[in-house]
Amino acid sequence: MTIKTRSAKIKSSEPPARNREATRTRLIEAVGNLLAREGFRAVGINAVAREAGVDKVLIYRYFGGMKGLISSFGQEGNFWPTMKELAGGDIDAFMSLPLAERASQMISNFMHSLRKRPITQEILAWEMIEQNEFTTELDIIRENMMKRFVESFMPCDELGIDTDAEGAIIGGAINYLVIRSRNFSRFGSLNLGTEEAWERIEKAMRRIIFSLIKPQPLPETDRGVRG
Amino acid sequence: MTIKTRSAKIKSSEPPARNREATRTRLIEAVGNLLAREGFRAVGINAVAREAGVDKVLIYRYFGGMKGLISSFGQEGNFWPTMKELAGGDIDAFMSLPLAERASQMISNFMHSLRKRPITQEILAWEMIEQNEFTTELDIIRENMMKRFVESFMPCDELGIDTDAEGAIIGGAINYLVIRSRNFSRFGSLNLGTEEAWERIEKAMRRIIFSLIKPQPLPETDRGVRG
DNA sequence: ATTCAATATCACCGATGGGTGACAGTTGTC
DNA sequence: GACAACTGTCACCCATCGGTGATATTGAAT
To answer: Which of A53-62, A154-163, A186-195, B78-87 has the weakest average pLDDT?
Structure first.
């Protein structure tokens, strides 16, 4: 980088409009862009300010520092899948499905949603690595979301199974495989760079759900609704 | 830190013995110590040299840089569970178990092994976050190990299941939950800070394996051998 | 004792990080 | 017009990073 400080302005065409609110949103958006493009390691006062084309001191002034900015970003950002998305588009149709089918489809939809959301992936990765003022903030938001989902969709304490534990296993596996696949395609004998591998994982999860919830052969290749 | 550069020597009592081999091992051990104590983010030329109580230029001289040092560390470090450990101590006894029992116990043993190995956790976390000269090096070692395990222990292409995919799910879930639990104890409604939660996960995995491999009720609370 | 290579230390470079105080331009109010 | 409040810029501080060239210390061969 031979360019100087002012070069930051190149990136954002509009000149900072001497407008507090506009500058605030510029900064919040800069966090998202930086997360998606460079990953959470790049998220720092200097980098965010540079990305927004704004002086870093404004982060202190308007947000009280990076913690405040991250918090605002977490509140406004819609990087989590919606209920509707997890239900595959039609919540009513979804709710009328039998339990195993419902769980299986929700899992598939969650996996697809996560794979399409680089920012969400970045946040999950971040949470795995360090606990700091940023990640604790973001974790609370994530936990609330997960909680709402299971409460709305999965009221199943029937059977002899531990849905919380099984859910943690499936959810953890999805998070792990998606996050990891950004850097390494190979995991065991799967090539996570190929759609074929993801379909195998999807089917395997479906198989797990169905054999857990009702030990009987599962309907073949019914991929179900998806948003 | 008000102390100066030379303060590094405080940490390692023995004066650097003007001995190339000894210095090399000091550096390699410093990597492991630093990984365990501070995490991979702290692993850099400066920090490692400081930890070893040695000048950083020796890393360039003896290892050609950090990449070389990490590679040597990866080769010598025994941070992966051994075959024997995964088998629960007695390989022969282990191999004579029925398939589902074998898989279930190996999974439990792997989880316990990983939970006891902070350095291994750190490496897995590192691999999730970035791909660089260090992690690609370490990933090759990890993949080879995993490969050897499944080949030796799990020759099962029977049944209508996809063992690679199911293995990736279980393995991914273990890696995720263990790594994540270092920073956040809560995941969904589980409290990963408690042994109780881990036992629930263990049982859930056992339930998954048994219902996958042979759809019939599983033996209750048989924890099996463990190293 | 001198020479020479190996071992290890030191001092410095440029880049980047988070953080802060002083200053400049704009706007509205009295 | 004078003034204060607000928005934004700039210049600097100190710490750490990876990296390198010059130098000191040791030990062994001659």
So the answer is: A154-163
Least trusted range by pLDDT, from A5-14, A94-103, A144-153:
A5-14
Number of other CB atoms surrounding residue B215 within 10 Å: 15
Residue with tokens 């903030």, as numbered in its chain: A137
What residues does B191 pair with on adjacent strands? Answer: B186
Cα angle value B100/B103/B107 (rounded, 5°): 140
- Residue B9 confidence class, pLDDT cut points 50, 70, 90: very low
Q: What is the pLDDT of residue A4?
A: 32
Residues B116, B121: Cα–Cα separation, whole Å: 9
Q: What is the mean pLDDT of chain B?
A: 84
Average pLDDT, chain A: 85
| Architecture of the domain defined by B5-76 | Orthogonal Bundle (1.10)
User: Cα separations (Å) of B144 from A32, B133, B138, B225?
Assistant: 37, 17, 10, 25
Tokens of B221: 């609370």
Of residues B113, B142, B112, B117, the one with CA closest to residue B127: B142
Cβ burial B145-179 (10 Å sphere, 16+ → b, else e) = ebeebbeebeeeeeeebbbbbbbbbbbbbbbbbbb
Dihedral pair phi/psi, residue A191, rounded to 5°: -110, 95
pLDDT the model gives residue B180: 96
Residue A137 contacts B, CB cutoff 8 Å: no
Flag whether pLDDT at A191 surpasses 90: yes
Determine how many CB atoms are found less than 10 A away from the CB of residue A210.
20
Q: Which residue is closest to B183 within chain A, CA to CA?
A: A131
Confidence check: pLDDT of B172 > 90: yes
- Could you tell me the residue ranges of all domains in chain B? 5-76, 83-213
A176 touches chain B (CB under 8 A): yes
| CB proximity B30–strand C (7 Å threshold) | no
Dihedral sign (CA A75, A81, A83, A85)? positive
- On whether any CB of chain A is under 8 Å from the CB of B224, the answer is no
Residues 6+ apart with CB under 8 A from B214: B100
Average pLDDT over residues B209-225: 59
Protein residue at shortest CA distance from C1' of C7: B18
